[in-house]
Automatic annotation (TrEMBL):
Gene: smpB
Domain of life: Bacteria
HAMAP family on file: SmpB (MF_00023)
GO biological process, alphabetically ordered: trans-translation; trans-translation-dependent protein tagging
Role played: Required for rescue of stalled ribosomes mediated by trans-translation. Binds to transfer-messenger RNA (tmRNA), required for stable association of tmRNA with ribosomes. tmRNA and SmpB together mimic tRNA shape, replacing the anticodon stem-loop with SmpB. tmRNA is encoded by the ssrA gene; the 2 termini fold to resemble tRNA(Ala) and it encodes a 'tag peptide', a short internal open reading frame. During trans-translation Ala-aminoacylated tmRNA acts like a tRNA, entering the A-site of stalled ribosomes, displacing the stalled mRNA.
Protein name in UniProt: SsrA-binding protein
Keyword line: Cytoplasm, RNA-binding
InterPro entries hit by this protein: SmpB, SsrA-bd_prot, SsrA-bd_prot_CS
Length: 157
């Protein structure tokens, strides 16, 4: 009998923690994701990554680039699988035009923040973001360290 993949307790499949460190997040939008069957099975098993993924606009459609979904050995035997293929994001026209206007500003881009389950569908949380400079990243790191120290001090008291 085949082993069942581990269930993830929350609805979140994968997060892009690097995006929150590298960018100032301005506006978040939920988008649908067009996937193939083997990709859904792999995501159920937790085999996805969003590091270095971003969104481009081509022919008035949004496409997710750089997202990695590793194929399962057992489920993907008769398919030609491409783990880093570009996947179409499903958005309304108004959302598409708003995002395209936002990235026309200098320094702004659209990045993928997370993949999660909503009922039986995979959704992608994307955000309009502006790149942080080196001193902003240092400030973020200092603030995170200080919050960690505060938590330790509160626990010890």
């Amino acid at each position: 009998m085949a082993k069942k993949p581990k269930k993830i307790s929350s609805n979140t499949i994968v997060q892009n923690k690097r995006a929150r460190f590298d960018y100032h997040i301005h506006e978040k939008i939920e988008a649908g994701l067009e996937l193939q069957g083997w990709e859904v099975k792999s995501l159920r098993a937790g085999k996805g990554q969003l590091v270095d993924s971003y969104v481009i606009f081509k022919n008035s459609e949004a496409w997710l680039l750089g997202a990695l979904i590793q194929p399962l050995q057992s489920a993907s035997t008769h398919f030609v699988t491409d783990p880093t293929r570009t996947r179409r994001l499903l958005l309304h026209r108004k959302e598409l035009s708003r995002l395209q206007d936002a990235i026309s500003q200098k320094g702004h881009t659209v990045v993928a923040l997370s993949l999660y389950w909503k009922k039986h569908m995979v959704k992608c949380e994307i955000a309009v973001a502006k790149g942080k400079q080196l001193h902003d990243k240092r400030d973020t790191e200092k603030e995170r360290d200080w919050n960690r120290q505060k938590q330790r001090l509160m626990r010890n008291d």
